[in-house]
Amino acid sequence: MEHSACCGELRLDPDVREDARRRLLSIRGHIEGILRMLEKESVYCVDVLKQIKAVEGALDKVGGKVLQSHLREHVVNARERGDVDQIVAELMEVLKYR
Amino acid sequence: MEHSACCGELRLDPDVREDARRRLLSIRGHIEGILRMLEKESVYCVDVLKQIKAVEGALDKVGGKVLQSHLREHVVNARERGDVDQIVAELMEVLKYR
Amino acid sequence: MEHSACCGELRLDPDVREDARRRLLSIRGHIEGILRMLEKESVYCVDVLKQIKAVEGALDKVGGKVLQSHLREHVVNARERGDVDQIVAELMEVLKYR
Amino acid sequence: MEHSACCGELRLDPDVREDARRRLLSIRGHIEGILRMLEKESVYCVDVLKQIKAVEGALDKVGGKVLQSHLREHVVNARERGDVDQIVAELMEVLKYR
Questions:
Q1: What tens-digit pLDDT sequence spans chain B (98 residues)?
Q2: Residue C78, domain CATH
Q3: ∠ CA(D92), CA(B96), CA(B87), 5° rounding?
């Protein structure tokens, strides 16, 4: 039922894909940093919360880049392509919360 | 200037710490899954966005566990301990966004 | 610099506009309810916070309706219309936070 | 089942209550402004979305003030008062989403 499954034509832009990959590598490193923090018995709750928030901010940023690319490459021409219902429904789903 | 630095007494509860560690290991695995998705040329934007959202949901959950433990162990007794200003300020900071 | 200023052609769908109006009237009523709560000396913080959250949920719902209509009527055909840059920029701006 | 019902002792600080009332009056005015916008046939979706976002920002601000007061007056001394479970549970509930 995925759009990608139906036509195989809508692909994440290669530059954005590479940028997202690079950012997620850095986010993985950040999470490994939190994992190391959590090995210390003396770790303080609020320090963990700050790091989690920072990772969420970084994820929001990747998401924003992918979303912008999606809007620009696949949403603004959905009428021409003829898949408005699906494009709008899946976008609303993804935007629903945060 | 960290609270932890000032007194060394406020520590994340060991069980919550272990639970958070376990959850973050799973989140790291999830991110590695997204990194693998991003290696495929045909990956679709919305599929990436859904996965990012799922990771953010999982991070929110870890954050919620740590926050609840912090409230229960360190915030509800701050008046007795005498560090209300700092406890409230750092909590407001952490809750500010999302 | 508003889009609306540049061409006057992009308008909120009349049915969605009427629905939004109706919902915002109800939200205004909800806020008046909170104002009445706040006149009582004995009002409890958490009861106010719950009501504020409920109003934010209702506003999210109106926003979602307007956004969906905007996507469907004005975004999916931006390529044809030739204003992709502006449509995407203003959408990213509006989606940036929450 | 409300905390307020059980003891009647936990009250929103009078100054914060007055500040919240003043802010909510202004928010009501803002919503009336959006209602007037929505009477115009030519209103543009994104202009409505921006105003809704602005109102949500203002509500977040009131919520933040009330929350800070609640933390400072009622949460930091919950251990002494002996209602930790209820205080933490209702706070987690209110913080759950946004």
A1: 344 444 558 999 999 999 999 999 999 999 999 999 999 999 999 999 999 999 999 999 999 999 999 999 999 999 999 999 999 999 999 998 44
A2: 1.20.58.1000
A3: 70
CB < 8 Å from C in window 58-77 of D: 59-60, 62-63, 66-67, 69-70, 73-74
The total domain count for chain B is 1
Measured in residues, chain A has a length of 98
ipTM field: 0.90
* Residue range of the domain that includes A27: 3-95
Q: Which two tokens stand for residue B91?
A: 């909590």
For residue D3, the chain B residues in CB contact (below 8 A) are none
Cα separation of B31 and B51, whole Å? 8
D98 touches chain C (CB under 8 A): yes
How far is A52 from D33, CA to CA, in rounded Å? 38
Rounded to the nearest angstrom, the gap between the alpha carbon of residue A48 and the centroid of all alpha carbons in its chain is 22
Whether C10 maps to a domain, the answer reads no
- D13 touches D73 (CB < 8 A): yes
Q: Judged by CB atoms within 8 Å, which residues 13-52 of A form the interface with B?
A: 14, 17, 20-21, 24-25, 27-28, 31-32, 34-35, 38-39, 41-50, 52
Residues A71, C64: C-beta atoms closer than 8 Å:
no
CB distance A56–B53 less than 8 Å?
A: no
In a domain, C48, yes or no: yes
